[in-house]
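Anyone opening a protein record will find just a pair of labelled lines. A complete record is shown below as an example.
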Amino acid sequence: MLIRPPSETWLAAPPRTRAPSHLIPWLTDPSSLTARIRARCEHVSVNLLSQGLASAVPDEATLLGLRPGERVWVREVLLLADGRPVVFARTLLPRGHVRGAWNLFHGFGARPLGAALFADRAISRAPLACARLDARDARYHRVRAALAAHAPSELVPREVWGRRSLFHRHHRALMVSEFFLPAIFDLPRCPTR
């Protein structure tokens, strides 16, 4: 199992000396990422990569208050803008939260989760955190594999930046992590609509 060294942690704000300046707005905007992408392209779609029980990585388990290696519901998707993958998203839901507060989780399939999260007034969002992942992190390899399988002509980066936060509904947490792929920078800076 790949484990991050202690110096590579999730931060409340991206370090301006290390994060590309054109990425900082994507990392720090607390609004719906799906809506932001939708405003910059003709069509947003979701490619469901996997959904089922899996183990959380150590920093995810810590944030969710889980025991190391505890299995959770994990949903991994690619967000596509006009057919190009721009974001790899990973959602984790503790097994005990599947029924009740987050029973909607199973019905999403290839639909964006963001629209539901931002439309439900019972859901609150914790502050964003961001991190840079590289080959020392298992999630980085998931991102690389998804990009290579679904867009073989796309350049696979040596590192990926991501953001994550907890969403709470009736005191039950769901974690969403979003990792930015190179094609995100090809989207227009200003909304097209």
The longest strand covers residues 44-55.
